[in-house]
């Protein structure tokens, strides 16, 4: 034992004596061997400089560049699928030109962009139901699960082992016993608290489960970035759910820390459900190692028209060549002529988005941004507050939501088009996590979202420019330090 202690002491002494050279080596790796944006490079160099040894460990956990990782070779399937979808371009262009929906024509370039870069099909026979309360959302979800006849595909970032999941499990087990195929895809970090016995019990009841990026050492996750943040449920290929609610009692407003949980989720019927289905199957194929694209029954759609809403299901992540979510936001912001309403728990835009928003606000567009009044991640919150300060200077109107915790993620533009889903307005959602949003080209639905936003203002506090300018030195230090780290938060 004494010998081991001596070796450890010698190792620590060597590290201490050579810490400058170790940091130099790491800096060389970050700068010259990994293609990163300058802001990200400087953030990591800052971490290495101020916390030399711990900074290296943090880099190993947070700083891995997954773009180069061979685990994403499943993308070959998606690329092949996209190439087939692109054959529909000419037909789609004709349909949009002939469409009576003005939102289609106004944003046709964005529709084409999503089709060309990501193979995202545009459909306009959809109907959307909006949920802003957890009880309403999960009651509707469970009811649709009860009606399932063929299969239930469920994917969530967080699933808690609590009373809400107990309700869902009871339905899933019963439906599986009736012969309905049930699959649950969960994120390894988001579902840490659920033990292996729980998943084993579900599998023993004929429910298939798959874990996205499981822990490498029991419950120790060395990969904090690159989490699957998507929340998707597809039932029989006819009904789809997507939005911000995870599965847990806090999303029902039962957690004393957060209080009421204000979020947004959608139920979609129509051809756009196939976009959610494809996204689920791609993630399932990767996590489970099974190619469900060979099963034709998962691509059989209903023939009847359920509505008149135009939708594209866009997704992004570290496996994508394009930052589709960010690019769609930038396009919509830059083409706004009257107003932009944004709700997000985290507001940490990259330079492109920040400048585009500031230009919109400075040019007279009514830019309104709503964030939570309380943090769930302190560094992220203070970085958010820093960027809010810049938007105030540019002429934007900003609010903190006071009635509990604001977790909804979305934007409305000019009463014509909106985008809601799982992606926050931050660099992590744009580049580091796997996200999915529904871009909705419909005035009626967009007006519904805007009405909800305006109603939320009644439960919010406007951030006064003079009050922000007079904030304390402590808050200024918190903001500046957090902002320096924002590229890696």
Question: Explain this structure to me?
Answer:
With 489 residues, the protein is of the alpha/beta class. The protein has three domains: 2-63, no CATH class; 70-92 and 123-313, 2-Layer Sandwich (Endonuclease, Chain A); 324-488, Endonuclease Chain A (Endonuclease, Chain A, 2-Layer Sandwich). The chain has 19 helices and 19 strands. It has helices spanning 2-17, 19-33, 38-50, 52-62, 75-85, 89-98, 102-106, 108-118, 134-146, 163-177, 196-204, 273-288, 324-334, 351-362, 378-394, 427-432, 443-457, 465-469, 473-484; strands spanning 123-131, 151-156, 181-187, 207-212, 232-235, 239-243, 261-262, 265-269, 309-316, 339-343, 347-348, 366-372, 397-401, 405-406, 410-413, 417-421, 425-426, 435-441, 460-462. It is globular, with a radius of gyration of 23 Å.
Strand order of the largest sheet: 4-3-2-5-6-8-1-9-18-16-15-10-12-13-19
Number of strands: 19
Write the CATH architecture name of the largest domain: 2-Layer Sandwich
The average pLDDT is: 83
Structural class: alpha/beta
Relative helix content = 40-55%
Uncertain stretches: 67-76
Radius of gyration: 23 Å
CATH topology of the largest domain: Endonuclease, Chain A
> Cα distance, first to last residue?
40 Å
User: What is the number of helices?
Assistant: 19
Question: Which percent range describes the beta-strand content?
Answer: 15-25%
**Which descriptor suits the 3D outline?**
globular
The fourth-level CATH homologous superfamily of the largest domain is: Endonuclease Chain A
Q: What is the CATH C level class of the largest domain, in words?
A: Alpha Beta
Domain module count: 3
């Amino acid at each position: 034992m004494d010998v081991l202690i001596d070796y450890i002491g010698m190792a620590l002494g060597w590290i201490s004596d050579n810490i400058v050279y170790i940091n130099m080596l790491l800096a060389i790796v970050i700068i010259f061997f990994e293609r990163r944006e300058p802001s990200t490079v400087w953030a990591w160099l800052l971490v290495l400089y101020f916390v030399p040894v711990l900074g290296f460990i943090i880099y190993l956990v947070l700083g891995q560049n997954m773009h180069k990782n061979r685990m994403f070779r499943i993308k070959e399937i998606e690329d092949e699928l996209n190439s087939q979808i692109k054959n529909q371009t000419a037909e789609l262009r004709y349909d949009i030109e002939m469409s009576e929906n003005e939102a289609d024509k106004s944003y046709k370039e964005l529709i084409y962009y999503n089709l060309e870069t990501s193979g995202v099909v545009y459909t306009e026979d959809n109907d959307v139901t909006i949920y802003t309360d957890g009880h309403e959302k999960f009651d509707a979800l469970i009811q649709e699960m009860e009606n399932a006849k063929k299969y239930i595909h469920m994917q969530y970032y967080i699933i808690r082992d609590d009373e809400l999941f107990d309700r869902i499990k009871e339905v899933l087990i019963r439906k599986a016993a009736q012969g309905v195929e049930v699959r649950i895809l969960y994120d390894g970090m988001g579902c840490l608290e659920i033990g292996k016995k729980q998943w084993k019990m579900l599998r023993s009841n004929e429910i298939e489960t798959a874990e996205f990026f499981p822990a490498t050492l029991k419950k120790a996750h060395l990969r904090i970035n690159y989490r699957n943040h998507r929340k998707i449920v597809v039932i029989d290929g006819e009904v789809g759910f997507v939005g911000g609610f995870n599965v847990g009692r806090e999303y029902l407003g039962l957690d004393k820390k957060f209080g009421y949980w204000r979020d947004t989720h959608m139920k979609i019927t129509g051809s756009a459900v196939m976009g959610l289905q494809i996204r689920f199957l791609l993630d399932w194929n990767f996590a489970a190692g099974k190619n469900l694209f060979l099963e034709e029954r998962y691509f059989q759609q209903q023939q009847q028209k359920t509505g008149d809403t135009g939708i594209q299901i866009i997704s992004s992540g570290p496996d994508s060549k394009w930052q589709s979510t960010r690019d769609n936001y930038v396009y919509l912001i830059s083409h706004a002529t009257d107003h932009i309403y944004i709700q997000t728990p985290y507001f940490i835009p990259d330079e492109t988005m920040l400048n585009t928003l500031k230009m919109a606000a400075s040019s007279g567009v009514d830019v309104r941004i709503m964030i939570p009044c309380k943090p769930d991640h302190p560094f992220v919150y203070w970085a958010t507050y820093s960027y809010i300060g810049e938007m105030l200077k540019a002429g934007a109107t900003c609010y903190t939501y006071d009635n509990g915790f604001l977790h909804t993620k979305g934007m409305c533009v000019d009463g014509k088009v909106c985008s809601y889903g799982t992606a926050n307005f931050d660099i992590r959602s744009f580049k580091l996590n796997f996200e999915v949003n529904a871009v909705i080209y419909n005035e009626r639905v967009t007006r519904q979202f805007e009405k909800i936003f305006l109603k939320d203002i009644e439960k919010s506090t406007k951030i006064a420019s003079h009050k922000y300018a007079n904030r304390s030195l402590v808050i200024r230090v918190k903001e500046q330090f957090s902002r320096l780290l924002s590229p890696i938060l």
